[in-house]
Prior knowledge:
Blueprint: H1 2-13, E1 20-24, E2 30-33, E3 41-43, H2 54-61, H3 72-108, H4 119-147
Antiparallel strand pairs: 1-2, 1-3
Helix pairs in contact: 3-4
Amino acid sequence: MKAALLIIGLIVSLPVHAEIYKYVDESGQVTYTNLPRRGAKKLNLGPVDTPAAPAARAKETSTPTDFPRVDSSTQRKRDDLRRTVLQDELRTEEHNLAEAVAAQKTGEALRSGEQAGSASWRERTDKLRDSVKRHEDNIRALKKELASIK
């Protein structure tokens, strides 16, 4: 029984060591196969790389023990400075958003002789709408960044 299992295991594992051939026909079509044919070139693919185990990956990406460390008070000062800069940027963006919204309201009003939906009116309102959206996106990004500070 053990011998039969060994033979079956060997037969099943034979394709694992199969050689790969590349064949290009007259029309230029490339075919890869494990069967040798006239005009085919044998490819030397080398060993197959497998993904590292999770523990091995964690070991590879961990910080080296001799890596310079920043003490907590220095890091706290850096975080405070970063928070201050981001809060200043947020106030500026909120101010710019208020101005953009006001400009959009003014810009959407029809000028004398201009019709709603005309090309010039649409172009102007699209630019104003894009400006408002850009400031809203900036505010959202700044708030997200502020929330990530420890």
